[in-house]
Design goal:
Elements: H1 2-5, H2 8-14, H3 17-24, H4 30-42, H5 48-62, H6 67-72, E1 87-89, E2 92-93, H7 94-108, H8 114-118, H9 123-133, H10 148-158, H11 182-188, H12 199-212, H13 219-232
Antiparallel strand pairs: 1-2
Helix pairs in contact: 2-3, 3-4, 4-10
Length: 233
């Protein structure tokens, strides 16, 4: 079982969520953590060996460990001044990054936390809201993709067992959606009717997870990630 073999410390060293745990060493402000994790999740595609240092630079060198102040004070307008070819990460350029920051700045006015904004909303509604915030960055929407990065972010914030932070006490493990990407699709081909990483496949896999454990269905997502790590050792 994954919970008997899962090496949390090793996982933090190689997974983007480890950058969020580094953020926790510098701030306990919930909005700092929520926003920092959201930006880390936004760039979590591609090689983790590249994602992690890129995310650390963003949180440490651009946001100075305080993403909430970075957004609320409009500091993003002067960020990434030395970015080569105006590139933040892969296809995410500096103008797009700043546009996302402006969206989030507008959305959080009058709120103390993102949890407060999402209170009473279904997980699908939260996914739709975050997808809108992160435009024009290409993070997907339910009619076009499995929304992998947004589902992963919500899992980080909600799920109460490691490696997740369980920050959103008003939300439940039961309502999370599977983190569906190409690697997960490859590992679950034999049990899925939908053979492409779409929202339909995400829902199908989520329902399978729930049939195995309705209280903590996303623990199987952690198991799939652990399996992938072992395969890549």
């Amino acid at each position: 079982m994954y919970d008997e073999t899962f090496d949390f410390e090793r996982f933090k060293q190689v997974d983007p969520c480890g950058v969020v745990y580094q953020l926790l060493e510098h701030t306990q402000n919930q909005l700092d953590i929520e926003l920092g994790a959201l930006f880390v999740a936004m760039i979590t595609w591609g090689s983790r060996k590249v994602i992690c240092p890129t995310a650390l630079h963003m949180i440490k060198d651009e946001m100075h460990w305080h993403p909430a102040k970075f957004i609320n004070m409009g500091s993003y307008e002067m960020s990434y001044q030395n970015a080569k070819n105006e590139c933040v990460y892969r296809t995410l350029n500096v103008p797009t990054f700043k546009a996302v920051c402006r969206n989030i700045n507008t959305a959080i006015q009058g709120y103390n936390t993102l949890e407060e904004i999402f209170e009473g909303k279904t997980t699908k509604e939260v996914i739709e809201i975050i997808s809108q915030w992160l435009q024009p960055a290409k993070v997907g929407s339910m009619n076009k993709s499995a929304c992998k990065r947004i589902c992963m972010y919500i899992r980080w914030m909600t799920r109460t067992n490691s490696p997740d932070l369980g920050l959103w006490k008003s939300r439940s493990n039961k309502d999370l959606y599977a983190i569906m990407d190409v690697h997960v699709m490859q590992q679950t081909q034999s049990i899925l009717k939908n053979k492409r990483p779409t929202w339909k496949a995400c829902v199908e896999l989520t329902n399978i997870f729930k049939s195995w454990d309705s209280e903590d269905p996303l623990k199987y997502d952690i198991a799939l990630m652990t399996l992938a790590d072992h395969e890549n050792d």
